[in-house]
Each structure stands twice: as structure tokens, then as C-alpha cells.
Amino acid sequence: MPVPCRRGCGKNAVLKRPKTGDALCKECFFWAFETEIHYTITKAELFNKGDSVAIGASGGKDSTVLAYVLKTLNQRYNYGLNLMLLSIDEGITGYRDDSLETVKQNRDDYEMPLKILSYKDLYGWTMDEIVAQIGRKNNCTFCGVFRRQALDRGAAMLGVKCIATGHNADDIAETVLMNVLRGDIARLKRCTAITTGSEGTIPRVKPLKYTYEKEIVMYAHYKKLVYFSTECVFAPNAYRGHARALLKDMEKIRPACIMDIIYSGETMSVKEEVSLPTQRTCTRCHFVSSQEVCKACVLLEGLNKGLPKLGIGKSSKAKRMLEEYNAKQAENEGTLKDAIKDLNDTSSIVARNERISGKKKSANKENNDTCNKNDCCGRSCKSNPSNVDPVTSNKKLDMLLEQFGLDDKESVKQKLNGVCDTNEDSSEVTPFNEQEEDDTCSASCGGSHIGF
Amino acid sequence: MNSKFTIMAETLKLNIQFGGGAELLFDKIKKREVELPPLKKFKPDCQSEKWTIRELLLWIKENLLREREELFLQGDSVRPGILVLINDTDWELYGELEYVLQPADTIMFISTLHGG
């Protein structure tokens, strides 16, 4: 009772496509699968001829299939792309160390250069060490936030035009659903975009955006692609897990729901009055951020100060924790008075800025020293606006802009100067901080991906 | 009469495979050769004498599944997101749970639920 291939090629079908319901044989399935991805790539103009493209590679099914298909299409359709693999080593014993072996296999099989960046090198902490500090409750926050930024850093090092990630249709539908369930309108609007990234950042593209998870797995199976599949050894995200289960249940009943949810997310329009956090660059590390100081820097500061919960939850909470911490530090040293004097003395701030900006180049860990000042700036903005000297902050900005070679000085300045006024309000209104992690974590730890 | 008796008494040999992370629930063993007893013996109240995937799942649950059965089974079927291949073909083309198992069939379960 074999079923013949729908395309009339005479062979027997091997699978029923969830997207169309068609029964196809192996060859016709490969053709349809690859051609649809090619269509997605060309329709959205994801790449330009001659581009260098980093593939975010975890060793899992999605990135393995993405690497294989991109290599195939690059040859077949003459994209002229220079493809490479970019992997992040979170430092999770028994999980990532194994999957990196798979990535190395991909490197050899697909003949692509591979760059591996570790949390240890970038941040001074492995996930194992972070979990030892924070426990297993909020560890996914760290992992997700750090991974997201690590990919940006890696892409900058490789000098690529964009990063291609393996997010598939099921992942995107799941994220739409998640954002609805959390009322996160800002992300709801953004999460279906096939290309993300603001000016000055390296864009991320999702060539598998319309590709069903089932087809990715079947493709890998029939092509005998080697991929790594295991759960992260740390606890997965429960809320996303429920959204995922719900989606899979609905997909079973009506597979088209995946495409329909994505379509809904794409076509939904957001009311003007809904405040959308803009993406900008972190004033400390200069990678993408939605706040003045990015989540990665806040989390890292917490770790380095022995306040690992810093950055978990709202930014106002983080500020309070830092205030308490700083007050305590100052008391301990008996220099509270001096510190206050120092804060109000703008010329000394400039001097410190110079010292700090020099340091920043060398190591991220130095944030330990600098964060007092950065935090003080944020606090004084809020509590006593007169403390902010526009001349000083512009000088600081100029230095940072020059240092990092950003072009669009005026627009960046405007954004950054606006931060002090609105930062507190926006962080209260949009439940933004708690959520960055969820999107990103799910990727790797048994859910799905590398972050939106 | 004689042939019917033979069928009833015979066991059914199958190849069971797990992939995509599903093997983690089965002692990390990816390939097994199993021998199913006559269905009447395994499930005396069963109306039919023929093993289908439906009964196979019950048998797997009782004999092979080591941990967290909710990650593999849901209701009387596999958990959505676990793909089933019958002789390397999508079970959705073969009636899913109702497929009647044949000697030497290879039944493969691939999880799509494990990330990378």
C-alpha cells in the first residue's frame, strides 16, 4: 500500500509535507525543500553576491541543515557567498563540549572555516561557573543574553556582512505565540522579521523562516546529516515549554497553523501609542542593546560584584541593588563623602572617562571598576537632573564614538542623550528586561534557538 | 486452522530505532531488535490479533521506556513533535496508529523537540 509521489515521478512517497499535505518521494522532497529556501532567500534578498556570511552553528539539527543547504544553494545558484561557521562555547560540561565536536565535523564535511568563541574568553565566566553562583533558576537568562551578544562579537571579528541563524517556522510561530502570551508587543512586532538588526549592527537573517521543523528533521535524516541532539543539562524554560507543547498539539490537528501564526504576526499592526523600545548600542560595550547599558553588561557586573541576581528582573530593581551595594562599599572604605563629592565634580568624571575608555579596549572584566561611575550617571539622571552636564556627556560620547569608529554620530548622540530622561519610565512600562532571556535560551537548551 | 494457530503462537520480530534525542529516554540506545509476544498474550482483552503501532507504543512503554514517559507519549499516541517512520517512510502515509506491523519492519522514532 505504498503511496505514489504526488509529483508523478513514479516513485513511492516517503513523507507527507506538513506545509502542503503533499506526499513526496525523497528526491522530490529534497527538491521542494531546497527550492523553497532558495525562494525565501531571493525574495527577501537576504544576501548579496560576494557577501561573507557567518552561520550561527550549534551542531543541532537546524544549523546543521542550514549550513548544508546554504552550501548546496550557494553552489547551485551561484550566490557567490563566502560561508563560515560561528559557534559559541557556553562552557556547559557534557552538553556544549559534545555538540562542538559535531560543529567541527560540519566544518570538515562542508569545508567551511569555523570560529569558536567561549563565554570564558569573552566574559571571564563559563556557564558552569555562573550556575554555581546563580543556581538553576535564572541561568537561562545569562546564557541567552550572553550568547546573543557573543554571536555579534564573533561576527564582528570575522568581518561578515550578516549572521544566518537556523530559526525555523515552528520556532517563529512559537515566539509569536510567546509574545502574545506575555503581552510583549515590541517583540511581537519584531519577531517575525526575516532580517533583524538596526544600523551599525550586523544583521541576522533567517533563511529557514518558512521551513517546518518536521521537514528539517526529515531532510537531515534522509540526507544522513550528522547533528547533535540532547537537552541542556540545566533546566529548560518552563513557560516557553508550555507554549511549545500547545503549538505542537495544534500543529498535529492542523499543520497549516504554523504558517498562519507567522502570517498573523507579520500582518498585525501595532497602535501608534504603544511605546516600542528602540535598539541602540550599549554605552559600555557598544554592542546592540535596548537600554543605555545592555543586559550582558548588567549581568556581568552582577557576577563580578557578587550580586548575581543583578539584571534579573526590572532595571529599577537592579538600580536599587547597585545603590545599596555602592553605599555599602563607600561606607566600608569610609569614603562616602568623597564619593559624593567626586560624583558632582564633572571634571573628575571626564578624567575618569578617559582612564576608563582606555581600559575598556583591553578587557571586559574591567567593567568591575567602571560600573560605579556608569551607574552613578544613571542614578543622578533620574534623581537629580542638574547633575548631568550635557557637555560632559557629549564629550564622553564623542570619545566612545571615536573609539569605536561609528559613523552616524548625530543620531547616536540624540538617542543616547534621550536615554537619561526616558530610561526609568520605559523600563517600568515595558516588561522588557525579564524577557530577553526567554527568546534566546530556548534555542539551545532543548527548546530551540539562538535568539531574536 | 493450523495456519491460524501458527500466527497466534509466533512472535513478531521488529527493529526499533530512536533518534533526534528520543534515544535519551531509552538508555541512549539507538537501535534495538525486539521480539513481540503474540498480541493475545500481551493484551488478553484485545479484540484483534494483529499488532498495530497503537499496541506497539503500549509495549514500548512497559518494556523499553526508562524515564519521563510524558516526553515520549501523549494519550494513546506519541507526543506531538516525535516523528514516526515505518520502514523509513513517514507514518502519516500509513495510517499512523492503525498500521499493522509486519515481520522485520523497522519502526523509527525521531524527536524534533531537542534543540541544538
Gyration radius of chain A, to the nearest Å? 24 Å
What level of helicity do the residues of chain A show?
55-70%
- End-to-end Cα distance of chain A, whole Å, is 44 Å
Number of spatially distinct domains of chain B = 1
Summarize the amount of helix of chain B as a percent range.
10-25%
State which percent range the strand residues of chain B make up.
Answer: 25-35%
Classify the fold: give the CATH topology of chain B. Answer: Ubiquitin-like (UB roll)
Keywords (chain A): Cytoplasm, RNA-binding, Transferase, tRNA processing, tRNA-binding
Pathway (chain A): tRNA modification; 5-methoxycarbonylmethyl-2-thiouridine-tRNA biosynthesis
Domain tRNA(Ile)-lysidine/2-thiocytidine synthase N-terminal (chain A): 53-229
Region (Disordered) (chain A): 422-452
Overview in brief:
Chain A is an alpha/beta fold and 452 residues long. In chain A, 56% of the residues lie in helices and 7% in strands.
